[in-house]
Task: structure prediction
Amino acid sequence: MPTPALAIRGLRKTYANGFEALRGIDLEVAEGEFFALLGPNGAGKSTTIGIICSLVYKTGGAVAVFGHDLDRELSAAKSCIGLVPQEFNFNQFEPTIEIVVNQAGYYGIPRDLAYQRAENYLRQLGLWEKRREMARELSGGMKRRLMIARALVHEPKLLILDEPTAGVDIEIRRSMWAFLRDINAQGITIILTTHYLEEAENLCRHIAIIDGGKIIENTRMQTLLGRLQTETFVLNLRRPLAQSPEISAYPIRRIDEYTLEVDVDREQGLNALFQQLSAQAIEIASLRNKANRLEELFLRLVDRQEHAL
Amino acid sequence: MNIRDHYIALQTILFKETLRFLRIWIQTLLPPAITTALYFIIFGQLIGAQLGPVDGVSYTQYIAPGLIMMAVITNAYSNVMSSFFSAKFQRHIEEMLVSPLPNAIIVLGFVGGGVMRGLAVGLVVTGISLFFADLHWQHPGLTLAVIVLTSVLFALAGLINGIFAKSFDDISLIPTFVLTPLTYLGGIFYSVKMLPPFWQTASLFNPILYMINAFRFGILGLSDIDIYLAFALILLFIVALFTYSLWLLYRGVGVRN
Result:
């Protein structure tokens, strides 16, 4: 069996105040994977990432990065990891390029090579023109991209992104998605945590959901999405409608005179619905999913976990 | 990481730390120059002119080594303390903690930065001193060794303060209530032989007294204490504080959960 990029066994963490953040986590991330680690706030995502990156001491269990156990080969394990944390954690009073070059230096990369790599990543992430500006002068989106460049400068095999697009506008977010897809295609394993479930659905092939310090789901993205039995669609009408229509087999609700909402079982499909609407001279201008599919599943899983506790 | 990687990493921290205080030279290099000049004008020229020679040298000459040493101690200490606390406060200490840097390199890097500032300030203040006092370097090698070792010692102390500090109050407590009184009572402006017997003995518990006197010996050839004892104490403190800093980082005090 190939060595996994990340192998976690029975990971536990209890903080000094007695809070049990992780209650025995088992997780494996294959090399080359684009992996989503999702969970509500306080579920244990950042603690898990903190332990992997040795910013947080574990209470129990074992973590290995590309086969390097954190307890026995910490230095080798650290060399494999690049971290993009949730909060800005660079010196706001340093020039952008210096932040990236210095990070390379901490990994023993000579300064001239560090400058070459810094230029490469800053150009790819659209920050080259800002290289001499102090980090505090960058916009929020630029600061996020700076942290990605910094995390990549030592060319890690595993990139961990903790909410990398938080507060970033949609245009920049999509360009960041394209960049991340690209580096994943080049062989870098990526673990992503995000509150934008659309982001996880778009980017990731595998998903684990953590809640209350436990992994409550760990499967392929397509397998999880395949479990969605019912989807809710919003139908925008071309002409106003005075009352809710009678459509057999489809629970339908009138939201306002131009909008209907309908629940569709995945076995049913949409053809019969459209036939019935046409028969009643109801013309559809457009339709969309009411909620992101992954969002619906996520909420159900987390809700089920809360009831189980 | 191999030895070459460690060397590059150490060089990186040193370069970064040196650039940090040079970039803000108005806050780091200029104030000690002005303060020292004022000390020389007030204590050396105005008050000192009314006093007779101390141990065979003019009062201005007598206080010069102490003033240089005071500036070096204060700056080596505050550089590391403020830099490390700022790195914790802005969380960019995590840049080092996630990398494979050994704790010893982190300590040496920050301490090296403190020594660089201590020496840079020492150079500036010595330049100012030469305007006011005629200084003959009796033992140049010893003078340099004392100033480097004292910078190392106080940079380590500043690092430990920075590791423990949780707020801006914590970074001003030790300098205000411990470092400054010990420095002023360390024989900058007087010889301990001028004190009553009880205070002469009490002064011997002040480690800064040994450093100032060793430095004065290097420049003027005068000292109230045994030079070998001074060196032994400085080295002992360095070993103790270096070991303690490493232990604190190993335990993750103030930097890891």
Summary: Chain B touches chain A at residues 1-2, 4-6, 8-9, 11-13, 15-16, 19, 86-87, 90-92, 94-102, 252, 256-257 (CB under 8 Å). The mean pLDDT of chain B is 90. The longest helix of chain B spans residues 59-89. The CA atoms of residues 39 and 220 of chain B lie 19 Å apart.
